[in-house]
Amino acid sequence: MAPERCGGAEGRDTWTDLEVINSLGSLGGEVRPVTPAWLLACTWDQWSFLEQEVYFSQFSEGSPTAESLRAVGSDPDEVWNVVFCPVSSESFRANPGVLLTGVLGTWPVGDSPPQVVIDWLVSRAYASVQLPLQVGQGAPFGDDDAPMITQLPTWLWVDDAVWAPVSVTSPPLFGITATVTATPVNVTFNGAGESVDCGPNLGPVYDFSRSGEDQSSDCTITYRHSSATDDWDLASTITWEISYSCSIACSVAPFADLVVPNSRPVTVAELQAVLVASGA
């Protein structure tokens, strides 16, 4: 059999230097990785060994025949998988062989794909990950009905529905599935010049059925001035750790964490004290 074509990845970070886009707005919605267009545009086919050798002969001297392949012990009718990808600077970074041939990898049907194709399958699953998007909850929330109050700590936390792992399993391709899981591992809140890192703790939820003296939180921010003096926002940054597994052996090359920032405007009110003269 012929040697594998275009086998071996140069590291997953060359494929996934990705940013995250906000798809549905600041108060809630979803975000997903922005995946290189070339990676999603790859196609695949099945060729006989002779067909793929004739294809590659365009880039080298000599065109093989069935007789010449049999003479060296190769079966010209053996069926191979072939993955084609658009030629671009991005695909070249993933594997330089693509620049010359437009082929990401080839391998006999029934064998395991080369590592670069397995990485491509994992990256296709990664492109389907959708993360819930929310700045976070607050007590008070910070809208007109429940404004934050100057000089008083605002409790902050992330909803349980957001603070939970998200997994995507790709449809089988070449008999292989890939599962990518994003797990929230850290949240930081910013507002009014303050920053609080709540770490892996999504923050205790304020219990309105209990008095403030009976509960506490280290995940708070205090606004010093009201909305009468300036416009205020509350921002959060949630870090998601990415892991993956495959139905066959996967590469150990890691994905970088997904860092998702978001913000929303908040209303801050000021409580006015009224002095009443003694005996009035």
Keywords:
three-stranded antiparallel sheet; 280 residues; 6 helices; alpha+beta
Can you walk me through this structure?
- By secondary structure, the protein is an alpha+beta fold.
- It has one domain (12-267).
- It has six helices and 16 strands.
- The protein has helices at 37-40, 49-57, 66-71, 89-94, 97-101, 115-126; strands spanning 20-22, 29-33, 43-48, 79-84, 103-108, 131-133, 137-139, 148-149, 153-157, 166-169, 178-191, 194-197, 220-222, 232-246, 258-266, 268-269.
- The strands form five sheets. Strands 10, 11, 12, 14 and 15 form a five-stranded antiparallel sheet that branches. Strands 1-2-6 form a three-stranded antiparallel sheet, with no helix packed on it. It has a three-stranded antiparallel sheet with strand order 3-4-5.
- The radius of gyration is 28 Å and the shape is elongated.
- The N and C termini lie far apart (103 Å).
Kindly estimate the percentage of residues that lie in beta strands according to DSSP: 25-35%
pLDDT < 50 stretches: 1-27
User: What Rg do the Cα atoms give?
Assistant: 28 Å
Count of separate DSSP helical elements: 6
Give average pLDDT, whole number: 82
- How far apart the termini lie comes to 103 Å
Q: How many strands, which pairing sense, and closed or not: the largest β-sheet?
A: 5 strands, antiparallel
Query: What is the H/E order?
Result: EEHEHHEHHEHEEEEEEEEEEE
Structural class: alpha+beta
Q: Tell how many strands the DSSP assignment holds.
A: 16
Shape: elongated
Number of discrete domains = 1
Question: What is the percent of helical residues?
Answer: 10-25%
